[in-house]
Amino acid sequence: MRKRARKNCTRVHKTNYWLLRAGFYPWLSAKIGAMNDDQTIDPGVVIADDVAEAAGVSRWTVGRAFRKDAPISAKTRKRVLAAAAQLGYVPDLAAAGLASDRSGLIALLVNDFANPHTLVVLERLSLILQNEGWGSLLVPMRDESGAPDALLTASQRRVDAAVLNGTWFDDQIIKTALGARRVKKLIVFARTSENPNTISISCDDVGALRDIVAFAFEKGYRRPLFVAGPDSHSATVRRKDTFLQEWHRRSGAHAPFIHVEQYNIGLAHARVLAALTGPYQDRRPDILICENDALAIGAIDAIRYGLGLSVPGDIGVIGYDDMPLAALPCYNLTTWHQPITDMANALVEVLRQTSEPSRDQLFPGRFIQRGSA
Amino acid sequence: MRKRARKNCTRVHKTNYWLLRAGFYPWLSAKIGAMNDDQTIDPGVVIADDVAEAAGVSRWTVGRAFRKDAPISAKTRKRVLAAAAQLGYVPDLAAAGLASDRSGLIALLVNDFANPHTLVVLERLSLILQNEGWGSLLVPMRDESGAPDALLTASQRRVDAAVLNGTWFDDQIIKTALGARRVKKLIVFARTSENPNTISISCDDVGALRDIVAFAFEKGYRRPLFVAGPDSHSATVRRKDTFLQEWHRRSGAHAPFIHVEQYNIGLAHARVLAALTGPYQDRRPDILICENDALAIGAIDAIRYGLGLSVPGDIGVIGYDDMPLAALPCYNLTTWHQPITDMANALVEVLRQTSEPSRDQLFPGRFIQRGSA
DNA sequence: TTGTACGCGTTATCAT
DNA sequence: ATGATAACGCGTACAA
Fold it and tell me: Quick one: which H or E segment has residue A288?
């Protein structure tokens, strides 16, 4: 009964939209310039048919004029674009997505709104996606149980890919994502993932923690405490394990660690304070190695305002991320810089590719020595 | 030639999607639970026709079953939903948007990524929109010239509304937005706008600054300096002008002010330091009233680490926003709390309405006294 | 309450 | 290089 010509669409789409920047649509600015304050431009939408009629070509030729690498003569294209400019035509991406199975939408799944670093990631990703002609669907996840909702949203909007920006994605969430309908690609950003069906783009945190351990050891620190994020997630384990191994290799001793349930500055404050006034009261660490900057900032606050001690005088602190907050003189955090822009560029490259890319792309970061250690 | 039955669609849409939460789609969880790690669910997409066939009804009845207030018998709906559940059907919102002229997408236009408060706004808005069945299109604007690009993106995606979250939107940008095709509603969030074609949802900053002035004056401060954001934008003027008026009314004196070109912590640091070591060296203020928290944080850093003075001992600082950073013990900023959640709820209400809402909704905030003044 | 014709604006595919 | 046919998946209006 039901007819469906295009099943299992695995065609390669080589024709991408171009001319997607407003700079290429001078008629927009012209119209706006001529407007009065209380005046709205006639919202009567111009469609490809109108342009076709005006240019004396068919609707399909209009579409070709707006796509790269389309078989169309330069002369015809010029005429079509001129007609489009005069009428104020802009292609409708929603309709294009419906027809082509490529929505041009990328879902950014975010659960880590308490971490200021998230804002940096959102800025970089959305800007670079916009430059490349993609739209960003911001999909928040309140907590772990919010993941199915988020992925449902993404799949209902036919996104071309979903990017996991969170920190506590566990394997169950990734399985949910892969199971969601119409989510074609799943990319784990700024985290590693062991799942073979994902593509992860992240900073080389193994190398990073080796460098961090080297720095701390050579600076003479001997009583470290590792401050890790939520337990039970494979992503966390990597930095922690690398640290523990490296420290043992260098010092012969086993370093202790604590876990904080969320990457939340206030919570880190509380947990670090509890640790230093409780189990670690009599064996106070001389350096806190933190899994990321949010934990490190909380740790500094705990040391200074909870214990009345000094950083780095009494206890040093090292973070990871180099978020803007880390550079403020109040914290002046020694940390590890992730090359977010490079990683975002790599993400775009992965999105462009139709073939299976190599998984687990690692990018080197760099150590940022400031005043906290 | 061209036929268009539905011109100027001003119909009232009373039927909204329901059952949009994943909790209502138990088959998703079931399928996922049964999966192996390296297995992907058959992405063969189930459409309404399939469900119709399985339930023995027409395709249109399937659509009705998924909408509220649709004329359908409870029995039929139950049968349809059962069939949908078995097949794993989920409505396609992209196609629905194309057909109905309501995409269910809201564009969040953001230009203020240097301000940590933006993350709070994004979290609240995207969560509440998701709960109500809307999707959030995150549209970044690098600078003022990026506004046309951003609005083009929004209009090409047929958003139902565009929400301006930025801080330096001037009237030209708003005109651009209103001129953009297919952007039906324009809402200015957390800022006021004088433009009669917009709806602004904001905190009552006139009342807020009255309270702030009252506090500062009664605390005995007598030499204020107002630290404002970018000049030339009407949004900025309101807090500044209110402050200046109120201070004059109370003290009989005219208070001075400076401008910072962006709401950026580092830049505020530099500008405040320059002011205090330059023009204001010999008439040092005893209190800095800042237009928002980002400026206030920069001011505190400048006072403490640039001048070596103490806050609040030598100079007090008051902010506005109550962003999470303000509560950290390092800054402990006295500020004004904006009721973002209430404002987000009001936004949803405006989005729901088809009639013209009253413009300029104001919400009361509250003074948060901490240690910086 | 249910079914049908038509349209939404575009693209894939094929024929010319 | 261009035009034509047939989707894409669903909603609206109206008839039954």
Answer: strand A287-290
